[in-house]
Amino acid sequence: MPLKHTQWITALIAVLLTLPVIIGLIGTLLPAFQFFPPLGEYQFSTAPWRNVFAQGEFYSSLKLTLITGIGGPLLSLWLALSLLAWGYERPFFRKIETLLSPILAVPHAAIAIGLLFLLSPSGWLVRIFSPWLTGFDRPPNWITVQDPFGLSLIFALIIKEMPYLLFVMLAAMKSIKARENIQACQALGYSRFTLWRKVLIPQLYPIIRLPIFIVVAFSLTVVDLALVIGPNTPSTLAVTLYRWFNDPDLSMRFMASAGATFLMVTIVLVLGGWEIAHRAFSAFTRCERSDGKRKGITDILLGAGVVFGLVTLLNAFAALALLPIWSLAKRWRFPDALPSTWTWDNIERATPLLIELTSNTLLIAFSATLIACAASLFMLETKRQSMAKSNKASQQHAFDWLIYVPILLPQIGFLFGLHVLLIYLNLNGSICAIIALHLMYVLPYVYLTLKGPYLAYNENYLLQANRLNNRPWRHYFIIKIAMLKPALFTAFAMGFSVSIAQYLPTLIAGEGRHSTLTTEAIAQAASGDRKQVGSMALLQALFPVIVFWLAQIIPTRWTKWRLAMKNFFQKG
Amino acid sequence: MLSVKGFTLSSTDKTLIRDLSFDIADGQVLSIMGPSGIGKSSLLHFLSGTLSHSLTATGEAFLNDDALHTKPTEARKVGLLQQMPLLFPHMSIIENLLFAIPADVTKETRRELIRNALEKLGMSDKANAMPKELSGGQQARVALLRTLLAKPDYLLLDEPFSKLDPALRRDVRAFVLAEIRQANIPALLVTHDSEDAKAMAGKCLEIDAAK
Question: ipTM of the assembly?
Fold first, then answer.
């Protein structure tokens, strides 16, 4: 891109990236100390904090948040490492790898709803064992999903996070020369799990530290998953805060803001503790690594992780498979494993609603993702030019860490603060505001997906094109962008699926006036009309999968189709 | 005629080439040989106007007494051929060739030019093939013809034969020399292979590390 004034563009984009977050944080911090001009409060006070700490609900919520927010990532990490150690570079594992991408693409609310259908007392798991094994001819009086300990929430978190960590690890394996390490250790007679434990995992962990931190921060603050499958009364802290923020009694906002500030401090403390625990653990296991034993009793830990990991994957697919079954079911009485009669009526009845939800969802997702793609190209081009000027291959650019800010900060921490700004700008409730908030979350993923391929592009192609006939802007598109098509399509699919999954940004910016498949599915998940919820969750899951699939097949066939069309029109 | 006068190249800490001067007549190829890292490619970048910021070059370059070194790269009408053929992988051979023809050429002339080019290449049947379907030698020839179709005023060759099979090199060299003679423009070849220089049947300058 023949851009000029790249420094100004860099500064402008950096401001656009950080400003909303800063304003959002201020909009949360000030009310936490009772300062909130819109409600006529101009006096600083610690009353909100005293109120929070006086609430019994706060402590039980915090406990649940810590259990699920630490337990989920810890178990996900264990299962992902086990699966990787077990299957890496084995032929059958390739098939499992290809299975990961649909799970990654599907919004977590859809998976949570599928899990609800699978695990609830009247769910599919109980059905297939009833009545022949359990003797139940009506749903048992158990509490399985939304259990008070948050176990089902932890399970849902694992289903979402384990594939993500596995995906990140697979990408990181190349940079630690895993194959050579494995061969060297196997030649020394080390068993597979032991060599992973002693040699590969210690090398792998530092590379995937940031993705793990993102997963931990997400688990501690997730709202939509916890609303669907998490415990209620008490719920996790993020959900409790969400309820306080939405309370008709506006003075609850002060307490909610203080709680949100506390939650952000909690994240920092948990991440700090996580890092200290990792250091202590690796210091503790250091001497064990060089004790020369080729096999160890702790290998069982990884072996067990494989079993649990596979069971988890199986559950994820069963949960997804239940979505279409429920949306097509007419009569499905309790112990039956499948509906006794099928029908399109559910979908037909819901069609007007589904069309409205779908068009909102797609409009928001397409706009946000297209803007994010354009912005990412701008940002990467300025980064490339500054790299070319300084002649350094690995120069750290402001974008490289700024981009993580929206992903690492909890949505509950600053979105309500940002909402105040939207009200001032008179943008609250508009579809533009929703797109803008989605952009904050879509942009980082698009940027990070595009970064590697864009910076690796051989600029000589573009230079040669401009030497042959000098039209820099045109050639930027028909040569460089055209050659980067596969990466652009993948980045688009990534951003698209992120946008589809957004719950809080849609609700807060749209003030409930513009529903999407995600907000409506979550709102109705608890209502019990499984047939309708199933249809919504199904569509919600379907679009990202279709877009990812198209992103795989279109770029590779594009040129063939283009030439075929050209030949057709020339002859015709 | 391409003339270079008093070309001196230095990096931050040392002088690489000192006071190099030469003339190249139309249709002739001058070969420059020397060990790698000496700054041969930087001479080409100086002539094409894309010298990296970390190097400083002084000296003058003229094309038929018209100063080159003061012009920006896009105004120089330079053709450059590198180790990689850099055929655009998402365009067919005929599209790659058409890409180079200036936009003001009429449609009939374009068609004529392309037919000639494909005939010279002996690839009339491969007009719609993709670059990756061609052999390395074929790609090198297409790249040369593509460069010449843009009607450059002078041609720079940066080791264009080094990635080719030894068996192919002779053919491609002969093809390149014949095309340069026909286009009747000055060409500068940079190489570390003395066979390349010999095959170009022109003068050869050897440069050593500057003292």
Answer: 0.87
